[in-house]
Amino acid sequence: MTQLYLMNNDSLFLKNTVLFGGDYNPDQWDRETIQKDMALFREAGINILTFPVFAWTKLEPVEGRYCFAWLDEIIDLIEDNDFHFFLATPAAAPPAWMSLQYPEVHLVDVQGRRKVHGSRTLFCLNSEKYRERAALMAEQLAGRYGKRKGLAGWHVANEYGHYCYCGTCRTKFAGWLKNRYGSIDALNRRLNTAFWNRTYTSFDEIMVPSELNDDNVCDPAVMLAYQRFMTDSTLECFQNEARILKKATPELPVFTNFSSNLKPLDLSRMAEAMDVIGWDNYPDPGSPPSFTAMTHDIMRGLKDGRSFYVMEQSPNQQNWQPYNKLKRPGEVRELAYQGLGRGADSSMYFQMRQSVSGVEKFHGALISHSGSSDTRIFREMKQLGGELKNLGKYIVGAETCSETGIIMDWESWWALENSSGPSESLDYLAEVHKYYAPLYRRNIPVDFLKPGSDLSKYKIILLPLLYMLAPETAERLERFVENGGTLIATYLTGYADEDDRCVYEAYPGLLRKVFGLWVEETDALLPGEKNTIHTAKREYSCDFLCDRIRLEGAEPLGFYGEDFYAGEPCFTVNHYGRGKAYYLATRPEDPFLDDLSGQILSENKIRPPFSTEGEVEVSERIRNGEQIWFVICHDRDGGSIDLSAAVYEDLLSGKKLQGTIRLAARDVLVLRTCIG
Ligand SMILES: [Zn+2]
Description:
Blueprint: H1 11-16, E1 19-23, H2 31-44, E2 48-51, H3 56-59, H4 69-80, E3 84-88, H5 96-101, H6 128-145, E4 151-155, H7 167-181, H8 184-190, H9 215-218, H10 220-248, E5 254-255, E6 257-258, H11 267-270, E7 278-280, H12 289-302, E8 309-312, H13 331-341, E9 346-349, H14 376-388, H15 392-395, E10 404-407, H16 410-418, H17 428-441, E11 446-449, E12 460-463, H18 471-482, E13 486-490, H19 512-515, E14 517-524, E15 531-535, E16 539-551, E17 555-560, E18 569-576, E19 579-584, E20 586-588, H20 590-603, E21 612-613, E22 616-623, E23 626-633, E24 639-650, E25 656-663, E26 668-673
Parallel strand pairs: 1-2, 1-9, 2-3, 3-4, 4-5, 6-7, 7-8, 10-11, 10-12, 12-13, 13-19
Antiparallel strand pairs: 14-16, 15-16, 15-17, 16-20, 17-18, 18-19, 21-24, 22-23, 23-26, 24-25, 24-26
């Protein structure tokens, strides 16, 4: 795989090393502590550190007066110890002096309150003063540290994802709308502002959708426009620094770390400005391994299958969950290999040393408050660090090969959840996961695609709730089916155009012909209420939404069993061109989706790489033509994998494996085929 940024004089490091390390805050420690940390990092096998994410004031205590001596010393020490580093710009938390001198750098929240100095990410994304100071800081850092031998790349700010509703943002939003729609008449028409008399006579009258005017909940089209505008504002903010860093060091990657809260920003747009995707993996306690796997797959999809960096995970408990469970023995390793198996080239952590106080003082760390390496977590991290040393040449930059894709669309996500109705239970990402999970359970690799992605290499495409449908996307999907592809859509597909105007030609709009049906009306079921799906083979339950559909050529495969629409079709297939288009008019229980995916995968001759028993995840990466499989046993009762097809080498233990291999809970194998 070509990764342009790997052309620097230190390219072998990024090209062949699984990055292992994470956020370090040397600005919080004295020299003696930092020196102890260096020894502990060496012992744990750390190879990279990210800093100084929150040290703006220490770097610029007074406007325009920069203090780099302390950072020079730390970088010397880090390089003396042969560590690499991602140098962070401190832009996520501006200094207190800036707040006092320029109160306008602070954001106004959705309730209309101007924030004051305090927590991080309280800045206005469109503040000229904020951007000016952030750019000057980036220039200083690039000029001073751009040639350091340990520098592996630039980490801009931290976990973007906040919105601002201030006067500056209002003016810029008006300009953004003018640029998008051209005239106020076009804006009124496209956003249907006649509804509830929101009609504007000039762009000067534009307001932001906040709790002051309730447009954040009562005007879904304006809210959608604001979500797009906030994404563009965040992109500008990132590029304000990134262009300076890139100019100074064109050979090094410049990126930010995406938050695990994926919704606020359209990451498919943000990804365009990143040299590499970085993200922070903090699974909720109780969220299934399939959900974490899906998020890794989403990250891999952001740059069309390119590998990515996991920039943060917790080495142990978090502090911000309601109840912060310890990571169980082996869990850190299990999560690390799950990311690596699904496209990550790193396993990085927040934080290296536990902070002595502050809101995250109880957040886990490689080095806990005890300062000791004689801890369970340190030993587990050290084992992982030792294992990862040997893996780089097999997996860094490796690809994943998939014939199955899911189209995920941030704008449909926003528009659906902005809508009042049809059901307040609507959770777009949970719905996407519902349709991803049956493929995950069968260890079938899935690529996450954008509405504009090339579909030609895929045999099966899923469209969970693709609510907004642009004509070019509909056309691409139609060609896909005509050419022999299998398309599976659900309720809430094809309802609206790009401005959230519902179609007047009946849903699923531009795909009506492809699916051979139209949706007459949709019933929202109450929490806990069920209906049933009757197919030729058996009966399944369903819930959430029930479309009443009218067939125009589609063949019914399942029928409702209850309510006034009992006997009407709820699951159909339409033979279109050389392909098939399935429509799910309701949300089925998992066994239905397991049966359906089994049938469709079999029809398309797509098989998992190995057969397994129990909850065993298998993922595959390919580098220079060599396949590497990651096998992870998530099953608390253990499981097994059938390795009878060949002799395999486990790269972690060095053992040769063949036949049925038993796996204990949290066991991990990293396999390659033995040659000869
Ligand atoms: Zn603002």
